[in-house]
Amino acid sequence: MKECYLKFINNEKIVLTDDEKKSMVNKFITIDENIECVHKEEELLTFIECLLTNKPEGVIVEAGCYKGGGSAKISLLSEAINKKMYVFDSFEGLPEHNENHEKNIYGKDVTFVKGEYSSAYDQTVSNVKKYGSEKICTFVKGWFKDTFGDFHEPLAGAYIDVDLVESVRECVTKFYPLLSKGGVLCCHDGHLPLVIELLDSNDFWENQVGCSKPFIEGLGTEKLIKIIKE
């Protein structure tokens, strides 16, 4: 068993019994083995552990789900703490864009093409149904600009993996103001210079999000960045 899972099981701050933690980890390992995931195991656990230790009020959202590996894991968490979950994705992959990301913080070339990370809606839902808890999920199909407008529920947490800076902008401006006290927003795109530039901008936070720039853990140094709502 990977070290990150052992740490999760041994984390006494998590509001689950040892048997519940072991059961959840075993299900996570099954997901890792059967669904192509773009996250590292410890990245999703960072988000999940925040929700289990801070215990914020509200629902949970995921933006950008690919084949549903992360969705399945988060749905198991949502079921365990009795929260609704919303999954937002175009199910058409990335949209047309003209963003030039050049190199990420690790010095690797970055190119995103239209349609990349596309996964069929039915296949993604099927994966979550088989390996997670599909019954507590609401899947919202479409481009963010068309689907975010009707969503206004208080948030315990938001997990964002959307690649393009304009998509990150849409997600943060929508979800951050909805976060409850102690709620967590994690973004899996923190290795991209355009995303770093956006989230490091006081102007973005003050004039588009409507608040002072919060502390952003890992900004500029980590792929997964984390914000806890004060």
Automatic annotation (TrEMBL):
GO terms for biological process: methylation. It comes from Clostridium cellulovorans (strain ATCC 35296 / DSM 3052 / OCM 3 / 743B). One of its GO terms (molecular function) is methyltransferase activity. InterPro entries: SAM-dependent_MTases_sf, TylF_MeTrfase. This is Putative O-methyltransferase. SUPFAM superfamilies: S-adenosyl-L-methionine-dependent methyltransferases. Keywords: Methyltransferase, Transferase.
